Amino acid sequence: MTDCCQRHQKVPETRTWTSFLVEITTDSAIMAGHTPSPHKPRRKAKGAGGPSNLGHSISVESSGRAPSFPLAAFFWPARGSASQWEILPIILMVVGLFRWAASLWGYSGFQKPPMFGDYEAQRHWMEITTHLPITQWYFHDLQWWGLDYPPLTAYHSWLCGKIGSLIDPSWFALYKSRGVHDPNLKIFMRGTVMVSEYLIYIPAVVIFVRRFSRLSGVTSWSASISLAAILMQPGNILIDHIHFQYNTVMLGFVVASMSSMLAGRYLWSAVFFVAALGFKQMALYYAFPVFAFLLGSCFSPKINVLRFIRIALVTVIAFAILLLPFVLGAYKEWKQGIRSKPAPLPLFHGLAAYLDPKAFYYPIVEQLVQMVHRVFPFARGLFEDKVANFWCALNVVVKIKHLPAELLQRMSLIATLASIIPPNLILLVRPRKDLLPLAFATTAWGFFLFSYQVHEKSVLLPLAPMTLLLAGSQGLSKEIRAWVGFANILGCWTMFPLLQRVDLRVPYAVLTLLWAYLLGLPPTSLSVYTLDGQASFKKIVTALIHGAFYLAMAMWHVLELNLQPPSDKPDLWVVANVGVGAAGFALCYLWCFSRLVLQSDILPQALAGKRSKAKTN
Fold first, then answer.
1. Which Gene Ontology terms of cellular component type are present (predicted)?
2. Residue numbers of the domain that contains 475
């Protein structure tokens, strides 16, 4: 921990309160790139040159007093606070208020038969898990929103359904409740998202920001700004609290796993990541960096075989506990003789030749294979609907979706591995805690761009760790704010066709523009692209590239709103959205990867020396 952070936590007894307050004010001003008032001493306080989250080291004499972006201005009165606990309750109340206000809007599938939407899917899973035995959860009426998420989602649905049934049993009546749009049910369902998020995601983010900011030498005031920006991330609010899903539960477990890595609690990290995988299979986007870091920590700085064995055992035990209810349920039905006639396995057909359908283990195998079949639906194709990744964009130019499924799967596998192996090799060789957000983000971008069966909402996975960069060293600097902001706004923009189908234009516009305003981002402000001092080629190119994308997004909205596409090209605007989005996300991948390479010091010392010499010149 840096001297700056230590001073903000504890005041030595030999110092006077006056000198302490002067130092607090001076440090806060330096951190934000601003000076204290003129009557303060002009001498720089001892040790005040620690790392700053704003990425500036501006002298007290020459800097101004205005905050550099609106969110910093909102927290400006608390810049002298020595503890984050003064600000945390305000942050939690404000982000909760915005979430609940957003939830007043409609949801996916509202009064849109025959299948309605994601809201009905989540409600239906509460219905079947509370009325049917566990052995039927992955088999029951698969044509009507059959359960296709891992077991922890099913357990979560069971718990929510049990609580909801105590309030009004008709909400989850078997068969009779399909498509129900009771306003009180909507309040309950929205409440389950809010409570789940405040129990898992928000505590995980708070703890991660605290640990990561301390690791990076960031003051508590800057960490509070970063925390507010992360929790106000518009994509999560739009999808979970309006469109309706529980993505932040899975993301919360992932962030908890990352936070445990920061704390050196590797066994807990493994447990939390198993929970993330157990809630949503999309957590596989992060599996490679989790494996690379935990494995690297077993061999660096020294070989620790016992740690490796313990992590492996804990991981296996966590998966076993997750699956145990299904195993026990299948065994109980076999023992009681109430199971139906064995059906052919939907996957691993050759396995059936080695199994005895009358043996006690067969129904267990049947359950597990059916679960895998439902959770990994390879039959759905390379991509679902129109998603801004490489394959969907390529399909506009070369019709690849009609190629054999086996060929597409191989192409996807090769491209995905090519994009994710390099960043994870870096993390394996350099298992440093400060590299975690970059490694997670780069890998998730690779999965989103090239993997099989990607959905529009999957963009939330690379956005989550990339947004966590705000809490690190220079996290609120112009460069990082520009790239994190660009990725989030572009991500929300690519989800607009999904949101538009359920009449969510207004919350989309309000939440994205509000977040852009708070962080001083386009289209509300161009301050992140202003050149401080000497202009650099990198800054100019970044401003031009981002400017072109922002202009394209704005023009797209104007055209989409005012012009109907030609009758022979009804998806013209959606296809344009895919092309622009895929190109922008590829840039985000390259930025995260290049920053990971530079920050990891993996390059040869000669190249590092040249970079240092170039910076000096």
1. endoplasmic reticulum membrane
2. 390-616
